[in-house]
Amino acid sequence: MEEKYIVALEIGSSKIKGATGTVDPAGALSVKAVEEEKLADGVRYGCIRNVVETATAIRNVIDRLEQREPGHKVTGVYVSVGGRSLMAQSIEIERRLPSEMEITNELISDIINDALGYQLHERSIVGVAPREFRVDNSPTNRAVGMFGSHISARLNLISCRTQLVRNLNHVLDERLHIGINDVFVRQIAEADLVLFPEEKRQGCMLVDFGAETTTVSIYKNGVLLYLSTIPMGSRNITRDITTLNYLEEFAEDLKIDGGNALSSTEPTASVPVGGFDFGLINNYVAARAGEIICNINEHIKYAGLTPDRLPAGIILIGRGSKLNGFDRRLENLTTMKTRFGTPGNRIRILDGRVNGADHVDVLAILAAASKEKNVQDCMSRPEPVMQHGIYTGNTSQQNITQPYQQPVQQQPIQQTYQQPIQQPQQQPYYQQQNYQQNYQQTPQQQPVQVQQPMPQQPQPTQQQPLTTYQQQAREITTATDTTPAQTDQTYQAQHDRKSGFSRAWSSLRDRVVSLMTEPVEDDENDD
Known about the structure:
Blueprint: E1 4-11, E2 15-23, E3 29-38, E4 43-44, E5 47-48, H1 51-68, E6 73-74, E7 76-81, E8 87-102, H2 105-116, E9 123-135, E10 138-140, E11 147-161, H3 162-175, E12 179-185, H4 186-194, H5 197-202, E13 204-209, E14 214-220, E15 223-230, H6 234-241, H7 248-258, H8 278-302, E16 314-317, H9 326-334, E17 338-340, E18 348-349, H10 360-370, E19 379-380, E20 385-387, E21 390-392, H11 410-426, H12 433-441, H13 445-450, H14 468-498, H15 500-515
Parallel strand pairs: 1-7, 3-18, 7-12, 13-16, 16-17
Antiparallel strand pairs: 1-2, 2-3, 4-5, 6-19, 8-11, 9-10, 9-11, 13-14, 14-15, 20-21
Helix pairs in contact: 1-3, 2-15, 4-10, 6-7, 6-8, 8-9
């Protein structure tokens, strides 16, 4: 089995990121390239607003990824959804069986299908995360294989605005004609990449501090308990600095170079540094950073927990979390230990220029796609080309450098064409009188035999200028002959691409069912 190329696409509020990687037959992922394109206002709060600007940025990223793999073309992508409208809500589904029987994968799949079919007002379900399963009122994390007559499941439905899904499908499918192989919830994919299983069991909070949103997800006993999005991000800090009469691009540089989220308890004089008054700038930085941290702390209460119930602490990801002093101030306010989330050694990065901590969002999509049962190839491979009797170019497994051998069928064909040319030289009796008389009696038979195949060539009228009527007739004939087959192929291709979210549901169902077959240990110290 050959390795497969996968392509991940992350559409953020400040930039578009793309990444390519290969998955070997054993399922190991190797990241080959990461490209990004800055975006101004094409995407707001995770939702595409300017279709043209976003499509152009995505095309630029894909073109650069294709240049890193000469001859390959991107035919499909794995994408993620997130943003301000992303949230989770709990539902409960029950099944009463006619008698005590074994809980099977089919029964769990049926429950997940009911959850995916749950109707929400102007929202689309993009993920399902199990919270708790009970068999005969007994809690369990491994429902498949147990015996019982009654099963109940508490699930988290993860949804977003329908407009977000619609615009994403419109840009990728209708404008760029790129298939959507699968869709992942960005926060869940990131958690699977940077969180350790022990942290999920003990209890922890993952904070994704992005450009315009901050997403909070809380894990306990190995499952997702809470997920919500705060409509504030690092761009709010940048725009606060613009009130000091700085352009937004320049204010972003000032925030990165000299910004500090720590508030000063003692009044200090504003001392210009490098011509800029960072004392005044940090007043804005610290005020907005404090507001965001207070909102993060409140979501622990909204989840019905306290900091002591999350002993694994807070894990920070996102470019906004790199703000100087942000992690220390968050740790001081929440009284919880804090660390930065990184992929570590879980994936292999072949490009030394790629820093895994800075690209957790797009690398998480690659990692999630590589764990699929049926990983779909996202790039088409170049066909081999023969030059001077040798095949060149990449093939599915290796380059073919052996000399090209002509098929056996071509031998008699060459003899057939060579025989009429060599006969006059090899048989001098053609110059005898009988042959000359016969040849002179029918002087035009020889050209007729040579030109006999000519009528089978394309009609000579095609080389002559056509009238307007003939051109219209040809267009109608061509359209009539090719449209049905092309229409079927085009419809099937479009149907496959547009059903990307439907296929994502199928993959999501398989992922959730697999969780029910893997044991998850509870925290012994949990009350």
